[in-house]
Automatic annotation (TrEMBL):
Residues 374-742 form the Glycosyl hydrolase family 13 catalytic domain. Keywords: Signal. One of its GO terms (biological process) is carbohydrate metabolic process. It comes from Seonamhaeicola algicola. This is T9SS type A sorting domain-containing protein. Residues 1-18 form the signal peptide.
Length: 916
């Protein structure tokens, strides 16, 4: 199998024959083959060091051009991969000897092509696209050796057309089916030909011997001038579906001269009928006569040298990644046009499969009461899919979250990623499912009162992005100085990928249009902007301190994006920034309406471990920062931070028999942190499975200080049984209780009248209800010894603890309360608050889900009924079924079903299950 390269830059689409030549010209599997590589125009042009071949073969068993067989060595391993011989500047040689079977170890398999990528010794510069050398069968063959397929010429160019046969034969050269030269009993033939008019030409070489005939056919194109014409009004960049069934393509491409559309509708060939018109910096073309129910793939061919997908594509096909997406995740994925295109291609369909929204009346939760659940679909589900994530929404609804923030789901490089290596910012990544799957996910969330927020990555783009490819400095391996979107060099010190220039109008247009698309097409409720502090053109990349200083130009950029969204798309869209700039800048942004991430991971972890240094969590309070509104999205954990429990167990403090490294003790201290965390007014965020005390390191499990595993997959909590573990469910229940109290009593838990004492290991939060009379006092002891704390009760009388369901008679507001290590209390003067319990004695689970043949339920069941999503009953089970009984659904077709259960002792339950 071909090696996949996650973040390697795509460069120019160069015709293979311009890169390599072979001796013999028509190689067979039994030949020794000398391959000569010309590096001009590739990522290795001008390179003077050693060049290596990452190489394998295609055989009759290969399923696609990406399905390499018998690959030699591994990428970047210079000891195992063939080294080329340098012949001179930009010229190298590789000898396949004594034959293909011996060189590659292919045995008796029939080899159809040699597959190659040439790379430098460091493995960070290479040829692209992949190079394929056709291997011929023994006997009569013929090949055109000049010009190359898809070559481009000017009118009146005179070209020497040549062909070579493998053995002596009668040879014939044709142009547009007219013979221009013949040769008898020869192995070579040539003729000069002048292209007198623009357009497409077909060149054919024919070899005949006895009754056998072989041909080789190529197409060339003679340039036609681009027409200048004003673009029709009200069109967006990308594909526009017009009311009359036609399609108008729009591409912004300043400094470019000629652009063609190539695709399924014109056999991926240059054709004057598909040459785009030009209006200043924008190319456009309206195409008629396309079948409305066919999905078409296409690319832009720019200045006769570069083929790219549409930067505004809403779906792309990737020849390297798509073969590894399961059909259950993305059913009936359109096949990549193998042999016709290279690199990523865009697709569109005039009449896409419709989706009927079930929830059309969703109201977004208030900002100050937002409880955000940060989710990576890849690690939240066992099969990486929106559909499976939907089966856990009831769990999240019970927990009380009212917003899910999805780590990036726009098209990223590879299929296995956190998503912060974006390539197409307006396309849904197919690795998680179809567009309608995602719409179903959003719809199901809205039906449960849960908003959906997308983590979007507009600080940078990666190399597969057409925005990088269209304007690229191959000599220096970075964006060209005239790139309309990307800076040649990053303007801040922590950039990855290629840095966007947010002062460019091209970037502003790109960001606004793609944000608008996500809201209008998928009804998402807002965005979290990754690395928003990078939206600057003014800072010195080498000066970290300056980068965090107040930057008025950056503020203006962000406010411009907000104004566009709030004034033109969605008046109440959430806009959350991962900013971490100086408080003066964050104050301006917060008061403008943005919410900003508030990272309290380190300080909360000091508390849960029992260390007083850096234990102050007062920065969680918007008032402490001097903000007018509660716009800090505070969190104890995020995707970027180590899990609290990991450090608790690895480094926690102890005193005698009390040891925070002990699992149950460590989990108890997470409960205490949870009580304090949610009691401080303002929106909150938790990282997935934090409510279960997740304790698998963000880094390598064998060494939590080794960050080389940081982006690797992590175990899914469901498979670890965390949601059935009593101690972990205690954390869940405390989290659920605090969240639901915050939602049920907003005048208390979101009050603007509160005080805190949270700098040391003894913590107190006093909440004063300005509407009713539900004042609250929350206290916790994070020391490793018993401590007495002053609760600062607002008045005397009876106070009830919502957790222990005990009461105390307060005779003096400052009378101390002794708490054991890790102990916490939430006091109010309302006994009925104790009835606000959200515990789950045991989470009801259906497993495995998805499944192929059977599933079980962790409860005793009397009846079970299975329905389609449209409500049709398709199967029933009646009787007394013990916990774990295997319900057989092997006869049901692949689909999503609703399972309804009933038992004597349990409330009826309903679940969604996926049948594979």
């Amino acid at each position: 199998m071909k090696k996949l390269f996650g973040l390697i830059l795509l460069l120019l689409s160069i015709t293979v024959n311009a890169q390599v030549s072979t001796a013999p010209t028509i190689p067979t599997a039994s030949d020794a083959i000398t391959i000569t590589f010309n590096a001009v125009g590739t990522g290795l042009e001008g390179y003077t060091g050693d060049v290596y071949a990452h190489t394998g073969v295609l055989t009759t068993n290969s399923t696609s051009q990406s399905d390499w067989k018998h690959v030699i060595g591994s990428w970047g391993n210079n000891a195992t991969q063939p080294k080329l011989t340098r012949l001179g500047a930009n010229s190298y040689e590789l000898v396949i000897t004594p034959n293909i079977a011996s060189f590659y170890g292919s045995g008796s398999e029939v080899v159809t092509d040699i597959a190659l990528v040439f790379r430098n010794s460091a493995g960070n510069a290479q040829t692209n696209p992949d190079i394929f050398i056709k291997i011929y069968a023994n006997g009569l063959n013929i090949a055109l050796t000049n010009p190359s397929d898809e070559a481009v010429f000017n009118v009146n160019d005179n070209v020497n057309i040549t062909a070579e046969s493998s053995i002596n034969a009668n040879l014939n050269l044709k142009v547009n089916n007219s013979t221009i030269q013949t040769a008898t009993n020869a192995t070579t033939i040539s003729s000069n030909y002048t292209f007198t008019s623009p357009g497409n030409y077909t060149i054919e070489a024919v070899a005949s011997q006895n009754s056998e005939t072989k041909t080789d056919v190529i197409s060339v194109f003679v340039k036609t001038p681009t027409q200048n014409e004003s673009i029709p009004p009200n069109l967006e960049n990308g594909v526009n579906i017009n009311n009359n069934g036609s399609v108008t393509f729009v591409l912004q491409a300043p400094f470019k001269n000629d652009v063609f559309i190539i695709g399924d509708f014109n056999n991926w060939s240059l054709n004057a009928a598909y040459q785009m018109k030009k209006d200043n910096d924008t190319f456009w073309l309206t195409v008629n006569g396309l079948d409305a129910d066919t999905e078409f793939a296409y690319q832009y061919f720019i200045d006769y040298s570069l083929k790219v997908a549409d930067p505004y594509a809403k779906k792309i096909l990737d020849p390297d990644d798509d073969p590894y997406i399961p059909n259950t995740t993305y059913p009936n994925l359109k096949a990549y046009p193998t042999g016709l295109a290279t690199g990523n291609v865009s697709t569109f369909k005039i009449n896409p499969t419709p989706y009927t929204w079930q929830n059309t009346t969703f109201t977004k939760p208030n900002k100050e009461n937002l409880i955000v659940y940060e989710m990576l679909i890849r690690d939240f589900t066992e099969n990486d899919s929106f559909i499976e994530a939907m089966t856990h929404l009831d769990y999240l609804e019970t927990l009380g979250v009212n917003a899910i923030e999805l780590m990036p789901i726009s098209e990223f490089e590879g299929n296995d990623s956190w998503g912060y290596n974006p390539s197409f910012h307006g396309a849904l990544d197919k690795a998680y499912g179809t567009q309608n799957h995602f719409k179903s996910f959003v719809d199901a969330c809205h039906s449960r009162g849960i908003a959906v927020i997308l983590d979007v990555v507009y600080n940078h783009a990666f190399g597969q992005s057409p925005l990088a490819q269209m304007y690229w400095d191959s000599a220096n391996n970075k964006p060209a100085t005239n790139n309309p979107w990307l800076n040649p060099d990053a303007k801040h010190p922590f950039n990855v990928g290629y840095d966007f220039n947010h002062e460019s109008q091209y970037t502003k247009t790109f960001v606004k249009q793609t944000l608008k698309y996500w809201i209008e097409e998928f009804k998402v409720d807002g965005f979290r902007f990754d690395l928003s502090k990078g939206f600057t053109q003014t800072n010195n990349p080498s000066n970290v301190g300056a980068w965090s200083s107040q930057d008025n130009s950056r503020i203006a950029i962000l406010q411009d994006y907000a104004n566009y969204i709030w004034n033109n798309v969605s008046t109440d869209a959430y806009l959350i920034l991962e900013h971490f700039a100086n408080n003066s800048e964050e104050t301006i942004l917060a008061n403008y309406g943005f919410m900003l991430w508030g990272n309290l991971n380190h300080s909360f972890n000091q508390n849960t471990m029992g260390f007083s240094t850096d234990a102050d969590i007062s920065w969680l309070s918007y008032q402490n920062r001097g903000w007018s509104n509660p716009h800090i999205v505070g969190y104890m954990e995020s995707h970027d931070e180590e899990r609290l429990m990991v450090r608790n167990i690895a480094y926690g403090n102890s005193n005698g028999s009390y040891n925070t490294k002990q699992l149950s003790t460590a989990l108890d201290r997470i409960e205490a942190a949870t009580a304090i965390f949610y009691s401080i007014p303002g929106p909150k965020m938790l990282w997935q499975f934090g409510e279960l005390g997740y304790d698998k390191s963000i880094n390598c499990e064998s060494n939590i200080n080794d960050s080389s595993c940081r982006l690797d997959r992590k175990p899914v909590a469901w498979t670890l049984g965390y949601d059935t573990n009593t101690n972990r469910m205690d954390v869940y229940n405390v989290t659920a209780k605090m969240i639901n109290l915050k939602k049920q009593y907003p005048s208390t838990f979101n009050t603007d009248n509160f005080s805190m004492s949270v700098s040391g290991l003894l913590k107190r939060v006093n909440l004063y209800d300005n509407v009713g009379n539900l004042d609250a006092v929350v206290i916790a002891n994070f020391n490793v010894t018993a401590q007495t704390i002053n609760p600062n009760f607002p008045n005397t009388g009876t106070w009830y603890d919502a957790f222990t369901e005990t009461s105390i008679n307060v005779t003096s507001p400052t009378a101390g309360i002794t708490l054991q290590p890790g102990e916490y209390r939430l006091y109010t003067q309302t006994a009925s608050l104790n009835n606000s319990k959200f515990e789950l004695s045991e989470t009801v689970k259906v497993y495995p889900n998805p499944t192929q043949n059977t599933f079980s339920i962790n409860k005793n069941i009397n009846e079970l009924h299975i329905y389609t999503t449209t409500g049709k009953l398709v199967k029933s089970f009646k009787g007394n079924f013990s916990k774990g009984f295997a319900f057989d659904i092997s006869t049901l077709p692949q689909s999503i079903y609703v399972v309804k259960t009933n038992s004597v002792l349990e409330t009826p339950q309903a679940f969604k299950i996926i049948k594979l």
